[in-house]
Amino acid sequence: MVPIFETDDVGRRILKLFLIAEKQMVRGPGNKRTHKRLQRRLHALDPRFNTRHCTHLIAYLNACIKSKACKRFIPSEWAGNIEDYPLKPDFYGTTREPFRQILKKSSGIEWTLFNQGWFMDYFLPQEKTYIKPAPDDFPVDPNNWRACIRGTGDEPQSWTCAREVGKAVVELLAASEWEPITYVVGEWNTFNEIVKLMESLSGSKPIPSDFVTQTFWKTHGAIGRPLKKSYKSREQIQASLMKHARDEDTTELEIAQAEDWHTLGASACPQEKTLRQRAKYFSNVHFSTVEELLRRAETINFI
Predict the structure, then answer these.
(1) Three-state DSSP class for 180?
(2) What count of Cα atoms within 13 Å lies in the side-chain half-sphere of residue 169?
(3) Residue of 94, 101, 287, 289 with fewest CB within 10 Å of its CB?
């Protein structure tokens, strides 16, 4: 038996795949307002809420320990390389890391920390995916056809399609044993290269009359529609972290912490371990590359 606490975005995708797979589950509270409050608490940056974050997860953990049927637990992670960068992004150091230490001391259950890097769906237009746009956090904004390149843009990243993350979680439940940390990845690459790819692929689509194509990408052999680009250096990111460190509204601080995270390359899951686990757990799942996802989005209405 698996506990499922329904939320939007990837949670909805996982729930649908559970239903397709006919897995036995316990459904958490169904009130949408309750879920939104819970999400805010689980992702809070304000130190006043850090204890509350652990309190909720401890309650879920204790319920799992006391349950006679539910003996497996996957807490909220959904990040990148948490082994080499356990305290990044910074708000994970005050929300996720304390609970990880509690989890390590627990007994009577099996658990894993599940990570996939960025959700690849952020490269898709809003109408194509459950994943909500994050134009302030994610460097590429496909809905407004622009990109803010943080750092050099050549830092290693990893991305995974949300649907395939859901499939992987379902597959993982069938495994006889888990490792403490689990990774899945569709593609390792850099934002600079993916921006080139998106511009190249856009050359196969009608170009808006108010946009003049000026870029020819020899790498991909196509005339593309260039994204409007801006840039933010590591030095500017560090300055933002200092500037917003004491803000009552933590929005700008959270953005800077996410920028710091991925310009360190911490969003890229470790490749050797990820590929080993792919062979071990996920041989039945095809993990798409960014190009595969973008081409598929051209032919179907929803990913």
Answers:
(1) coil
(2) 35
(3) 101
Whether omega for the bond prior to residue 98 falls within 30 degrees of 0, making it cis, is: no
Strand order in the sheet with 140-141: 140-141, 146-150, 228-232
Q: What is the pTM for the complete model shown?
A: 0.82
With beta carbons less than 8 A apart as the criterion, state whether 227 and 135 touch: no
Alpha carbon distance 57, 263 (integer Å) = 29
Tokens of 7: 């939320």
Q: Which amino acid is at 297?
A: A
- Between CA 209 and CA 191 the distance in angstroms is 27
State the Cα–Cα distance between residues 3 and 60, nearest whole angstrom.
9
DSSP label at 46?
S
The 10 Å Cβ neighbour count of residue 259 is 24
- Assess whether pLDDT exceeds 60 at residue 265: yes
One-letter amino acid for residue 91 of the chain:
F
87 touches 97 (CB < 8 A): yes
Q: By the 8 A CB rule, do 82 and 181 touch?
A: yes
Structure tokens at 268: 């890229």
- For residue 288, the Cα-to-chain-centroid distance in whole angstroms is 15
Torsion of CA 132, 278, 182, 7, to 10 degrees: 30
Structure confidence by residue, pLDDT tens digits, 82-105: 999 999 999 999 889 999 999 999
Q: Judging by beta carbons within 10 Å of its beta carbon (0-12, 13-18, 19+), is residue 232 exposed, middle or buried?
A: middle
The bridge status of strand 228-232 relative to strand 146-150 is parallel
What letter would DSSP give residue 138?
S
**What is the rounded radius of gyration, in angstroms, for the C-alpha atoms of the chain?**
20
